[in-house]
Amino acid sequence: MKYAFFRLAWILLTFVMFVSGAAHATSIRIKDLVEFDGVRGNDLIGYGLVVGLNGTGDGIRNSPFTEDIMSNILERLGVNITGEQFRPKNVAAVFVTATLPPFARAGGRIDVTVSAIGDAKSLLGGTLIMTPLNAADGEIYAVGQGTIIAGGASAEGDGASVVQGVPTAGVIPSGARVERELEFDFTELGSIRLALREPDFTTAGRIEAAINGNYGRVVSRMLDPGTVLLDIGATSALSPAHAIGEIENLLVIPERKARVVVDQRSGTIVMGADVRISRVAVSQGNLTLRIQEEPLVVQPNPFTNGQAIVVPRTNASIEEEPGTGLAEVSEGTTLSEVIAGLNALGVSPRDMIDILKSIKAAGALHAEFVVR
Question: Which residues span the domain enclosing 121?
């Protein structure tokens, strides 16, 4: 009878914890869970020249490509330097990268990142000369130019130097102008695929149910754990853009895989709410080996011809610190409860990571274990 009472109490407690966890589940907008087919950016890259540096540019002898691009630019501007000994220290060759956002129109401006590729010491105060930015198809989609905001600073003297941050890289806000638009007609789409950022069958099913429930009929279909297909014609929306505007703010409760992420360098432990541990016993402690030399000097008796000698003496001992002892974890215990208990016992983060590894190796930790 007593056992049945405790079993009933445990079932009720488990039910309350489940209901409480479901009540605190966070609803997320669909737009924060998926990527819409066709709504994506495109990477751009260019090779250019930065001028106006205060003697911190490339060494032309170590970076001959800097001289080549500088000569080409000057020749395009009508300056002939063939055969001239041109050795400036205020120029640097750089790679320029940017992302062309979806639906960017000609004349719009985008941010660019500038990074030195030679032996320049700093790009602080430099100006990027007009640089074409190409996409993967080889076409020019933007042109960058402007003053660089470097991400660090450097200074040096005859005997020492100091560097803070990364002065060889910087950004130019709105530093490129869009010259070509992507050839993509969004209005001609008859259907749109919603690609989940974290593929999951349950989450995809909930997105499908939320969209169909919003229209009161079947307008979407789950194809796989990472894709939900939206039929534009069945939504009676004026255009694909209107259809996305109608569904992107619908709320869905996503499901996440049980996962534990630990960082051994910083001792950080991050875990999900669904991580569970089976019945397991944990024992943790440290062994300390102490060896200490205490030589003993033996003096001869007075008025004798003896000599003092040194008798070696070594004290060796092994001590075991109490640690956490042997702790038993009951069935269904959450990892957060285990971590709280280990913290209460004063276990260090690195020892805690070792304990979690051992629990995972024993098959008692039911979650994906990621070590960085």
Answer: 42-178
